[in-house]
Amino acid sequence: MPQSPSTNAPAPSAGHSSRPYRRLFAHPGTRAFTLANLAARLPMGMFSVSAVVMIAGTRGSYALAGAVTATGLAATALVAPWTARLVDRYGQARVAVPATLCAALGSLALLLCVRYDAPAWTLFAAYAATATTPNTGGMSRARWAHLLKGDTEALHTANSFEQAADELCFMLGPVLAAFLCGTFFPEAGTLVGVVLLVTGVLAFAAQRSTEPPPWAPTAEAAGTSPFRAPGMPPLLAVCLAMGAVFGSTEVVTIAFADAQGHRTAAGAVLALQAAGSCAAGLLYGRLRLSGPAEYRYVWCIAAMTALLTLPLLAASLTGSLPLLCVALLFAGMATAPTMITNMALVQQRTPEGHLNEGMTLAVTALLGGIACGSATGGWLAEHLSPAAAYGVPVSAAAAALLIALATGAVDSARGRVNSG
């Protein structure tokens, strides 16, 4: 396991944290690769919504639309870690471009199959081909880790910015997809998403000066998997639980707004939660932190669990959509710090040369949790009530907290401090 960069970090200079984001983007080439990556990352919040609207609108079946997107999610969970391993081994530009083009062809094939009323099985095959989409957020984080190696405080700011960018893309992506599909034609969201993805990845890959060098592994290290690295399985288990928080909150909020007769407002409500998380992530990046990240990790998860009781109380006790909006805004503020700390720990515990693969495993766990949380939250919202279903994200967050405590995150951090 690689040594944590915190042990070799230089002392921060005067004014180091006064304007951390300006200092971050003072590095040559960082603005160019960040803008390109944002363009490539935005479609990640567009494709699933676009596919559901496109398929359900033309085939008249939400069940088929949900099954197709679930198949794509399952395929991504299988393929994404292998794609990330190739990125680490052969370089971002060499692997990401062909992988993106393959995924783009899958999306275009899905569009054509829907447009020309092809058999249902072709929809599943086409959407499964999109599983080669590279983890653009992970590649951006890998560039920051390469550029800021040894500067723990600057890397914390970069990770915070990347988490805020994730929230922004997943906040704007569904809104943009719904607007395009509803305003123009059902396939518009998928078509624009493909253009953004391909253009963004090509522009990102062209920024060679900031690209991490390919890793040439030894015979022993070549077979190393981040999944087996010490401390990684508990982090991935927490990611799975965190995904359940996200997936259940989204479905239950839509169901609650629909029950209140404000289904069209559900997107704005969820965007408000993402906005709270985005703002908290940017603020968290300005903080000068001390001590092991494991300590902060447990406290961040505990804060998230506590704040997630607010939507449950607002929905159960008042049934007011405006109060639920406020509750979700505050609940979202603990999400970004938790995910930022989680990704920092993933970077620390990932074996050398496997950074993209390690972060992609974390994203895959999140996607699996989202699928489970969506199914569980939807079932409870339908068979009990949307208000009662807000207990699912609280339970998932509590499970994440128990995992972090039971796997000895605090004890392991204390052991390293004492041994030092």
Automatic annotation (TrEMBL):
* Superkingdom to which the source organism belongs: Bacteria
Q: Region (Disordered) spans which residues?
A: 1-20
The reply to whether Signal figures as a keyword in the UniProt entry is no
Entry keywords, A to Z: Membrane, Transmembrane, Transmembrane helix
Record's compositionally biased regions (Polar residues):
1-10
Can you tell me where the transmembrane regions are?
32-56, 62-83, 95-118, 176-205, 235-257, 263-285, 297-315, 321-346, 358-381, 387-410
What protein name applies here?
A: MFS transporter
Q: Which organism is it from?
A: Streptomyces machairae
